[in-house]
Automatic annotation (TrEMBL):
<dbReference type="GO" id="GO:0005783">
    <property type="term" value="C:endoplasmic reticulum"/>
</dbReference>
<dbReference type="GO" id="GO:0005739">
    <property type="term" value="C:mitochondrion"/>
</dbReference>
<dbReference type="GO" id="GO:0016020">
    <property type="term" value="C:membrane"/>
</dbReference>
<feature type="region of interest" description="Disordered">
    <location>
        <begin position="1"/>
        <end position="27"/>
    </location>
</feature>
<keyword id="KW-0256">Endoplasmic reticulum</keyword>
<dbReference type="InterPro" id="IPR052374">
    <property type="entry name" value="SERAC1"/>
</dbReference>
<protein>
    <recommendedName>
        <fullName>DUF676 domain-containing protein</fullName>
    </recommendedName>
</protein>
<keyword id="KW-0496">Mitochondrion</keyword>
<keyword id="KW-0472">Membrane</keyword>
Length: 124
């Protein structure tokens, strides 16, 4: 029996997921999938959509150790009339789960979400 206040080790016990990035105190979404507006832009004339690579993360991919978000803090000042998005998809290639979607399916999902966003805002 484990001493009072200590849990007995169980290899099948689910471990709590880390919900914070290594550089930010803000909690990250449990499943960072889909389209996210990073910057609305000043009277936007173009959309920029950043897509992470394999094993990437919709938010962490664009954030440096000093908590500078490249899309929000740097790119937006260089292109103020751009609406900037980041898009997350299941790109896990290792571990207990792998993406079951094909590349075409990911692309279809991205285009569908972008069309929906554009129809809601009627810009660009």
């Amino acid at each position: 029996m484990a001493p009072s206040g200590m849990q007995r080790w169980n290899p099948f016990r689910k471990r709590p997921k880390d919900t914070t990035s290594g550089c930010s105190k803000e909690p990250l979404e449990a499943t960072p999938l889909g389209l996210k507006v990073v910057v609305e832009g000043d009277d936007p004339v173009v959309d920029i959509i950043a897509v992470h690579g394999l094993n990437g993360h919709r938010d962490k991919t664009w954030t440096a150790a000093n908590n500078v978000h490249w899309l929000r803090d740097l790119l937006s000042s260089d292109i103020p009339n751009a609406r900037i998005f980041c898009w997350g998809y299941d790109a896990n290639t290792h571990g207990g789960r792998m993406s079951c979607q094909y590349l075409y399916s990911h692309a279809t999902t991205l285009v569908s979400e972008l069309c929906s966003e554009r129809s809601l805002t009627d810009t660009i």
